[in-house]
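hey m, so remember when u said the C-alpha cells were messed up on ur end? i reran from scratch. heres the input so u can diff it against urs
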Amino acid sequence: MNISLRQLRVFVAVAEALSFTRAGEALGLPQSSVSTQLRELEEALGLRLFDRHTRMLRLTEAGAEILPLARKTLADLDAVVGSSTELKTLGRGRVSIAASSVQAALVVPRVMRAFAERHPGIKVELFDVSQDDVLSMVHSGAVDFGLGTAFRSHQELGMRPLWHESFYAVLPEGHPLAAKREVAWRELLNEPLIGPRKGNPVRTVLDFALASEGLVLNLHHEASLPLTIAGMVEGGLGIGILTSSMRQLAESFQLQLRPIHRPSIQREVVLVLHTGRSLSPAAKQFSDALIDSARTRSSSSTGTGAAAAGGRNGRR
C-alpha cells in the first residue's frame, strides 16, 4: 500500500467541501488533479470513499470512518513540522550543561541571563558538579555539553578551548608568604598544601607540569570542590592551590591570593563535547554564546587576578 500525504490532504479537503472544485481551489490544485489523487487513494485502500451523484457528493460509511484518522494523521504531521520550525528558530527547546562548581557559579549564570532575554522559550538546565562528573555526564549523554578543565585525549569526547587560568596560592591573613607579590612552587613544597584530589583534571595539569620540572606536589589535604579548599585554608589547615577564577571565592573568606611562578602553570578551560552527537539548534546557540563570552574573558581572567593580588599586597 502506497498512500501519500497529498492524497490524504485531498481526501480531507473533498470531505469538508463535498466538492471537487472547491477542494481544488482550497488546495491550489486543478479539479482533474483532485479527482486523480482521490481515485488513487481509493485504489490503494481498496475502498470507495465517496458516493458520487450528478450534483451531489457524499461520504461512504468507510470514508466517514477513515476521515477522523486522516485528520489526525495530518494534524500530527503539522505538529511535527511546527515543532521543528520552533526548534530551528529557537522559539522553544532545552539546553543542559554540566559545569564545575565555580564555573557554574561565576561564569555560566551571566550567559544564561543574556540568553534567556533573547530566547525566553528555551529552558537552560545547569548541573554544578565536580570536574570528573563533567566528563562522565557529557559522555553518557546526560547533558548537551560541559564546561571544565582540558583533559587528555578521549575517544568520544572533544574539547573547544575557551580561556586559560593561572594558579594561585591561597593564604590565610598574616601568613609570611602573603608579604610577597608572588611565590615560587619550590617555596610551597614544604608547606601544608591543600588542593584537588588525584585524578581530577586540574590536579593532572599540576602534576604533569611540575613533574617536567622535577617537582612533586605532596598535598596534606585533598578536596573535590574549591569551596572546601577555601574553607580548609580559612580553618587554618594549610595553603590552598586554586586558579584565578576562584578569586571571588577566596576573598569571601578574607584570604590572600598570590600568583605562583617558576614554573608558571595554566589550566585551560574548555567546552566539552561528545564527538558522536550533534548539538540541537538551542544547544549550539548557547555554546556559541559561551564562546563569545570567553573571548572577552580570556584576555582578562589571569590579569585581573594578578592585578588584584598585587593591589592587595600594595595596601598592606
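this time it looks ok to me. The first strand starts at residue 50 and ends at 52. if urs says something different then somethings off w ur setup not the seq
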